[in-house]
## 1
Amino acid sequence: MLRAAGGSVVGPVHRQSGQPTQDALSLRGWRGGWIAAVADGLGSKQFSAQGARWAVQCAQAVLRDENSNQLTDRDVVTAIYRRWLAGVPNSDPGSCATTLLVAACTAAGNVRIFQIGDGIILARTTQGLRLFTPEKAGFGNQTLALGPSRSWSAWTTGSIQLNHPGDQVLLMTDGIADDVDAGLLDPFADTIQRQIKVRTRRAGRVWLNREMTHWGTPGHSDDKTIAMIFKG
Amino acid sequence: MGWASYEEDNSSRFHQATVIRSKEHDALMPKKEVPATKLKAFAAPEPRPLPVIVLADVSGSMSENGKIAVLNDALKSMIISFSKESRLRAEIQVGLITFGGEVAKEHLPLVPANRIAGVEAFKAAGRTPMGSAFELACKLLEDKQQIPSRAYRPVLILVSDGAPTDEWEAALDALKSSERAQKATRLAMAIGAGADRAMLGQFVNDRETPVFEADGARDIVKFFKAVTMSVVARSSSVSPDQPLPLDLGSDLSDDLDLDAL
């Protein structure tokens, strides 16, 4: 049986200034499977919070379509992007710039991955850890995003099969991803799964939110969002 | 517990002894601590670094008119200011690369400012191997062990009073085109009339901050004070990645410059 959990918290900087989160999370069941989408609006852009929320809704809408399984990765990306552009101001889509990470898992455990911008998508299966996200070339907070980046090459896509109990896909925004050393990603994902699988989805969300609110890195400031789909 | 003993307890505790009692009470109250979390072990134990790398000209010409002494003092003040910062949002790191003689050298490896006990003073001598300094800076910026991807955008500061004496064009091109190094904010200060302004103009990449012209000791100090204020403001801002313009408009010196009257 496939299970999922996700959480999203406002970062200390936004919390102190009374601003809303610029991250967005959408985790919904999908005919026995799950679609998880997380987005991180660019802090420097005025309407990035709205852009992030709209992006996760667009990803859900496109992938929930009956025919989405027949679409190529490029067609899915194009459909998500077009839908997103239709919902943001024509004159300045860059003002809503956001990253987007999506995992769509069918009831059979077939997962499709789509990512633009910062954050990490990884999968843990019996074959080991697989990091879908390419290594970051720049420095913190320099990212590709929906809005400014309009090329196919800005996207990372892939697929993986969740066959065995414990197989999982994990998505997280850079508020978390940047602070976890690459060598610790495997035990990090394992710890999350161990905690989530003994909880209900709602309790799992509460646990994740608590962990992210009390994140261990000194001076952490970003909003944080995480989502996991796993074989229970 | 009866009413009498309850009243007595209240009175004895607080009547005319509020201050003392409240202090005792505070000490007994459980301290509000961050709860232990399962994921804490995986979070980076240090704040995100904000690297500041200075490329300092220590060629023979810097020994004229006490320029090297002023540069030493200005850098020392900058490092002391950085070390006093709270590391609330970012950890300011400082690295010094000097170029004088035959090749550039790493005078101070990139380390957190608060861990720098002291810096050996620069000694001016020899030629101006600026290209070699560019190569060293590029290598440092590309090194993910020294400057991780989670670091905020580094600041590269070039200080020179002359023209390069080695092959600098290819090294500068490499610095401006390499994958990570090109993303650093590059600032420059030209000291005196002998500085190669055209070359320094090619180095800078911040439109709002052109090459700073320093005519004397005061200007050198002024430039580093402005850099310090900009970096400190960044390190404590809500978005340390956004470069802040240098405030060079106001004269930061207390000298009223009355000699001109």
Note: Chain B touches chain A at residues 34-35, 37-48, 87-91, 147, 149-154, 179-180, 183, 238-239, 241-242 (CB under 8 Å).
## 2
Amino acid sequence: MDTAVATRTDNLRATLWRPLAGFSRAYLAALVLTFLLGAWGLACWGYQIFRGIGVAGIRRPTMWGFYLVNFVFWIGISHAGTLISAILRLTDAGWRKPVTRIAEAITVFALMIGAMFPIIHLGRPLVFFWLIPYPNSRLLWPNFRSPLLWDLTAIVTYLSGSIIYLYLPLIPDLAELAQHSTGWRERFYRLLSFGWTGSDRQWHALERAMHRMAGMILAVAVSVHTVVAWDFAMAVAPLWHSTIFGPYFVAGAIFSGIAALLLVMSIIRRLLHLETYVLPVHFDNLGKLLFLMSLLWFYFTVAENLTTWYGNSPSEMNVFGSRVRGPFAPYFWIMILCNFVLPFLLLSSRRMRTIRNVTVAAVTVLIGMWLERYLIILPTLSYPRLAAVTGFYKPTWVEISITASTFAAMAMFYLIFCKLFPAIAVWEYKNDSHR
Amino acid sequence: MILTADFVDAQSVAAAIQTLRARGYGAGEIDIFSTAPVEEAEALLERPSRMSLVAVISAVVFCLSAIAFVYYTQHDYRIVTGGMPIFSWWSTGVIFYEFTMFGSISATFIMFLIESGLLKRRGSIPAPRLEEGRIYLRVVCDAGDSVSSVECLYEAGAAKVDEMEEQA
Amino acid sequence: MAIDLDRCTGCEACVAACHAENNLPLSDPAEAEKGRAFHWLRVDRYYEGEFPDIRMKYMPVLCQQCEDAPCEPVCPTYATYHNAEGLNVQVYNRCIGTRYCGNNCPYSVRFFNWFEPEWPQPLELQHNPDVSIRPGGVMEKCTFCIQRIQRVKRDAKADGRAITDGEVQPACVQSCPAEAMTFGDLNDPESKVSRLAASGRATRLLEDLGTKPKVFYLQRAK
């Protein structure tokens, strides 16, 4: 039994630790490419700070544009980790094992990227720290009644919670890596593993902490995207002032989060050769969840649009008409296609839920959800209550560059993460080895 | 005297723990080391935890501090906005909620660091180096009792038992 | 403020006066086409009826200085708030440019400085020294010419007298050739603006939103 366990663990380590060693040409190329694209985005932002936010396409009346769309989108993606990790941990679903760390990493990086956007979209970004309550010479505190302050507290809480939630189950793996590494890696892992020795006290404390964190991070995640939704719902603008926005955004966030997770899982499985760990059953289960969220999203969308249309209030119908028949109609119907029709076709039966189909569905959902954020923000702003101020938004190269660079930045963070840490929690697979 | 025994499966560890408990050793003197959590051992060794209590207390403390802070800052320079009251529970309730959760999250993490012993590094008894597939049991026993304890451990199924003097 | 729509001819003298008085930045045609022109006071044109019975209605729209302004609670830095006199003031120094207030204003009367403001030479010599130049990245809007209000208050205090009705005249009110605009103290029931506001012809814009605007539009009742 001893040798069987040892071999199994060797296989475990061989597969899960292989990506950590060495740099293949493709990896370096990808890292350099994503870094350059990310740096280009930063350069564009620097240009924007220097010249003024007018280099972006935002204007009156559409004072919020791509940056807010991206903000909501990335915060939405960050709900991947929460749903999978937290809910599956709470329900003790065994199939979550290969998926949790990937999801938690997505959460942390997506949050970091999403949290940059409120600063990027500011007119005077260099004084963004005025939002932080500290005694100052202006004798002023920030306005806690503003939904933007609620955003700040929610995102800071969620970010710290997510980092802790990612870090905690990483500790045993880090200790094991430290034991089997040399040089700077050993020092790095040992430092991060905090002196973990694997004693039962530590395991006990870890499992207890993880269980509690799962519940708490879930509660925080629901509140975070509700608060982001309330950035819009608290405004009196037509079609924004809707009570359903809180739940709508949370459902949409979980929806796009699962899609992002599926995409990343698919890529990681292929690139890191994790085919024996990330199995078709995982894609099947997550595909079922994606399908469920697609139905839920569609239900919310129908409820929202039906009540608007039936209510027939003039300022709201103006915006509604622009979404369904007017200038925004192509995006609206593509969104319905991407978020509901294609997932329905690709995910509704077990036979259809192959890894490829599920990944394709995930990609269409990501596109659809980005469009959904766009369609929530722009039509309302383009058609204000006083029609004389109607105006349309056209993004400039600055906004498009920064948007593209965030995707590159996400890829880069992930590349670095997978090089330093095993993408799957090794210790969770060892539980069977002692039986 | 510190005895470190290594076992290959969880049942024998459990048997060993039961034997040691029968001989009068408390959970404070017995430690199990492994590369993955061992359920049978955890069931036998109670590790009282104050994590929940501290988390709840911390949540309450953070919540009250947030309320006090917001109340103080809203009244410090009374600025009227949009006909809203100067301080209202509804318009700042989210902030209280987030601070409460932040309090309980940080408390949980800090209690984890404390209860797992990761924070105290000085003067701790050295832990065995972990090998795959092996579970280590470490017990701090009296010098006189060590010989019979070692016998019991071998009886329970230990593959090897090391003895070490305690560092003062 | 009361604006008589039956008298307004749509000449936009008020718009020009506001530009001159408040150091409004000039936009070049490219920016204006992108919708970034500054008109703290704008004249909206409405057509009523079908050709050939068209009637034009000109409606000068400026910041309504709402009592329950939706723009105020959403500003995270208190850059816009309600002062004791009942004005919705904009503090340029505090603004960090989130533009939430601009999105939340139902009248779309808020303007944002997308760039550092520039005036082609020699127009920068024409600036009103009583009004600050806004930097790039801050929000601005009609202030009811608060500099004029302050000046009248100071003069009245120096003379030891109360402010008479009609003494404070924002630039738009002062320049209207049709005398369509009236400005005064709504708290004083005897002032001209209060009497006009109480008349049967007074309406307010988007009143059902509950913003309690302070600009009364006088038009014949339908």
Note: The longest helix of chain A spans residues 200-233.
